[in-house]
Amino acid sequence: MSAVAVVTGANRGIGWQVALQLAERGFQVVLSARDAGAAECAAAEIRQRGGQALPYALNVRDPQAAAGLAGWLETHFGQVDVLVNNAGVFLDNDVSLMDLSDEVLNLTLQTNLLGPIYLCRALVPLMKAKGYGRIVNVSSGYGALNDMGPYIAAYRISKAGLNALTAELAAELTDTNIKVNSVCPGWVRTEMGGASATRSPEEAAADLVWAATLDEKGPRGAFLRYREVIPW
Question: Which of 77, 146, 177, 223 has the lowest CB atom count within 10 Å?
Answer without folding.
Answer: 146
